[in-house]
Amino acid sequence: MQNSPRPPQPQQPLPLDGITVVAVEQAVSAPFATRQLADLGARVIKVERPDGGDFARGYDTAAAGLASHFVWANRGKESLAVDLKDPRGLAAVRALIAEADVFVQNLAQGAAARLGLDAASLCAEHPRLVAVDISGYGAGGPYADKRAYDMLVQCEAGLVSVTGTPEQPVKAGIPAADIAAAMYAFSGVLAALLRRSTTGLGGPVEVSMLEALAEWMGHPLHHAMHGGEPPVRTGLAHAVIAPYDAYATADGARVLLSVQNDREWRRLAEMVLERPELADDPAYATNAARTAHRAATDELVAKALGRLDVDTALARLEKAGIACARLRDVTEVAEHPQLAARGRWREVGSPVGSLRALLPPVTLPGGADPAMGAVPALGEHTGALLRAVGMSDAEIAALRRDGVVA
Question: How would you class 349 by CB atoms within 10 Å of its CB: exposed for 0-12, middle for 13-18, buried for 19 or more?
Answer without folding.
Answer: middle
